[in-house]
# Entry
Amino acid sequence: MPSTLTIRRPDDWHVHLRDGPMLAACAVHTARQFARAIIMPNLVPPVTKVAEAVAYRDRIRAAVPADLKFEPLMTCYLTDGADPAELTRGKEEGVWVAAKLYPAHATTNSAHGVTSMDRVAKGLEAMEKAGMPLLVHGEVTDPDVDLFDREAVFLDKVLFPLLKRHPGLKIVLEHITTREGVAFVEAHPDRMGGTITPHHLSYNRNAIFKGGIRPHFYCLPIAKREEHRLALRRAATSGNPAFFLGTDTAPHSTDTKECACGCAGIFNAPVAMQVYAQVFAEEGKLDNLEAFASLNGPRFYGLPANEERITLRAATLEAPETVEVPGLSKTITVFRPDTPVDWSF
Ligand code: OTD
Ligand code: ZN
Ligand code: ZN
# Structure
């Protein structure tokens, strides 16, 4: 095992940075690790207009310390009746990098999400023409479908028809959690990418209930059985250019997770590259970490890879247990797998 690993500076293709005090607390942690990040638009209210995205991008830039080089890449939150002109204009103006599809009520702040694909068809056609990728939260929301089956059902019921209906659209299946999701991306290599989080690589659903209910392991899509985690590990470490890094870091204050109806989302930004390195080392695939973290994403989005380099060290992870939220006397609990992490920044 090497004692250091130097790779091109990575990017994070799926990040929730929030706004206000939470943004002030979190932005630095993503910017320390990553050169660029795809910023999720599920604010309250959601980011649906070009002008809102420009203003949010300015707030993010202002929240990052001046000595860190960091580029926020903005996304449009698709709602029923999404305006094709707003999508096209934002892409032309260099604001939108992609648009995000949340099925209504699938996850945090998705109440304004899409209720039927017919209602976004015009917007998706505009995106096809503009060469703007669609990022999907791939879960059906039908309460009759078991929580653990919602990703697999989405692939058949929604994603496959969507690919056929919009043959020019490039799609990212975000935060894949199942072997069916892996297989789906592998089956459409010319049109699809898939992001994989550090947490879904490091534990299966048992961890959520080990010794009691553990809210800091709860996110959506929820972690699945071990066979699915193993499929994710194979995909992420394979070198297949369709799979790339997306942490889905999703901070909530500790009190809103440790309560009777705790929020979904895991704050992994301070430990993301360390956990990914641990997974690749365990799989004997450290040579493929650079492709997953720093090359495959830019290639999918048609952007240049970063020229700077980072070095990871084989040393026990040092990370705070919590991060303070300025002015709120609240903390955010930092993700920590149950298994050892022997990589450090
Ligand atoms: N939490 N999952 C997601 C978002 C959030 O808190 C969030 O914003 C998601 O799927 O993007 C989640 O558990
Ligand atoms: Zn999602
Ligand atoms: Zn997310």
In short: The pocket of zinc ion (ligand 2) is lined by residues 107, 137, 174-175 (CB under 6 Å). Residues 150-165 form the longest helix (16 residues). The chain has a mean pLDDT of 97. The two ends are 16 Å apart (CA to CA).
